[in-house]
Design brief:
Helix content: 25-40%
Largest sheet: 8 strands, parallel, barrel
Low-confidence stretches: none
Number of domains: 1
CATH superfamily: Glycosidases
Structural class: alpha/beta
Radius of gyration: 18 Å
Mean pLDDT: 96
Strand content: 15-25%
CATH class: Alpha Beta
Length: 330
C-alpha cells in the first residue's frame, strides 16, 4: 500500500495561518523516509457567479499559480501528486468546467500522478461538490474528458478517478447518486475510472460507540469500506479490479477529544483498513492532514492534523510514521 497526506493546513474555510514550506518539507521527509509518498492538493472551479469572498474563504485565489510547495518538490524524493479538481460553482457550467480541467492539466499535468475529478459529489453539503448544480454531469463528463486531455499530452501514466464520502445515511443516503451512475453505459464512464477514492471520517463529526463495541470507529470504518466495494461500486459498473484509495481519513484531537484519543482512533482505522486492503483491493491511503487548520478551534475540522498549527508533533505523528515505515509498498 502507498501512503500519503495533505500538507496544507486548511480544512474548508478554517485556516489559522499560512503554511510553512520549510516545516512541511522536514515533516514529510520524516514521514516518508525515502519511500514513495503521495501528496494531496486541491484546486477549485467556481464558475463566474461565485463571489470573490467565497473564493478567498477557501484560500483558492492562487490555485492555478501555485500549490502549497514549489512545483519541483512534488516530483522529488519519491513523492507523487494526487491533485483534486473540485467543482463548486453556484450555477451549473459544464463547458467552463471542462475548460478548467484542460487548464489544470496544462498547468499541473506534468507534476501529477493521480487526478481526482470532483470532490465527494455524493455529499450535498455547502462548499462540497455534491451541493453544486450540475455536479453529476461534471463527474461523468469530466472523467473521460480528463483522460482524453491527458492522453493528448502524452500523460498516459496519470491515473484518473473520483472520490465519494462514506455513506451519508444521516443525510438520507446517496442512493440517487449511485442510481444516476448505474444508468450510464460502462464505456461512457466506468471504463475510464482508474480508481475510486473514499473520504472517511467515522468519528470526526458525530459521537460513536465505545471502543470494542458495535458502532465503534473500527466497525464504522469496516462498514464504509464494505458498503463502497460490495454495494455502491457494482451499481456504477466499477469492477473489483478497480482499486479503492482512502482519499481522506482523519480524526480530531480538540476538546472534548484528546491527543491520546486521536491516536487510538487512528490506530483502529488504520488497522481495519490494512486488514481489508487485500480482500477489498485498497491500494492507497492518504491522511487528512499534516497540520491542524486551527488548534484552538472548537470545530473538529480544526484539529485533524498530526501536528498542531504551530507544527508541534502530536503522538499521532509518530504513530503514522511507524505505519508508513512498516506497511508501505512501492
Amino acid at each position: 500500500m502507498k501512503f500519503g497526506i495533505y500538507p496544507g493546513g486548511r480544512a474548508g474555510t478554517t485556516c489559522s495561518s499560512p503554511p510553512d514550506p520549510a516545516a512541511i518539507g522536514v515533516l514529510i521527509d520524516d514521514l516518508a523516509a525515502g519511500r514513495p509518498f503521495v501528496i494531496r492538493e486541491y484546486v477549485h472551479f467556481f464558475g463566474e457567479a461565485t463571489p470573490p469572498d467565497v473564493v478567498a474563504s477557501l484560500g483558492a485565489e492562487h490555485d492555478l499559480t501555485h500549490l502549497t510547495m514549489p512545483d519541483e518538490w512534488y516530483v522529488e524524493g519519491g513523492r507523487e501528486l494526487d491533485l483534486v479538481a473540485s467543482y463548486i460553482p453556484r450555477e451549473a457550467d459544464i463547458p467552463g468546467w471542462l475548460a478548467f480541467l484542460d487548464t489544470v492539466i496544462d498547468r499541473y499535468g506534468h507534476l501529477t500522478r493521480y487526478l481526482q475529478v470532483t470532490l465527494e459529489p455524493n455529499f450535498p453539503i455547502p462548499l462540497i461538490d455534491g451541493s453544486a448544480p450540475g455536479v453529476l454531469q461534471a463527474l461523468t463528463l469530466g472523467i473521460p474528458h480528463a483522460r482524453a486531455a491527458l492522453d493528448a499530452k502524452g500523460l498516459h501514466d496519470v491515473r484518473v478517478g473520483f472520490s465519494v464520502a462514506e455513506s451519508a445515511e444521516w443525510l438520507g443516503g446517496d442512493d440517487e447518486f449511485w442510481r444516476h451512475l448505474s444508468a450510464i453505459p460502462r464505456q461512457d464512464f466506468a471504463d475510464h475510472v482508474d480508481y475510486v477514492g473514499l473520504g472517511l471520517y467515522p468519528d470526526a463529526f458525530s459521537p460513536v460507540a465505545p471502543r470494542g463495541t458495535p458502532g465503534d470507529v473500527a466497525s464504522l470504518t469496516a462498514h464504509a469500506l464494505h458498503h463502497l466495494r460490495e454495494h455502491s461500486l457494482p451499481r456504477a459498473r466499477i469492477p473489483p479490479a478497480t482499486p479503492i484509495h482512502i482519499a481522506e481519513n482523519g480524526t480530531p484531537s480538540g476538546t472534548p477529544r484528546t491527543e491520546r484519543a486521536q491516536c487510538d482512533s487512528l490506530t483502529d482505522m488504520l488497522d481495519t483498513i490494512l486488514d481489508l486492503r487485500e480482500p477489498l483491493n485498497i491500494t492507497q491511503y492518504e491522511l487528512f492532514s499534516l497540520r491542524d487548520a486551527d488548534s484552538a478551534s472548537a470545530d473538529p475540522a480544526g484539529t485533524l492534523g498530526l501536528v498542531t498549527d504551530a507544527y508541534r508533533p502530536k503522538p499521532a505523528f509518530a504513530l503514522y510514521r511507524d505505519a508508513v515505515r512498516t506497511a508501505s509498498s512501492a
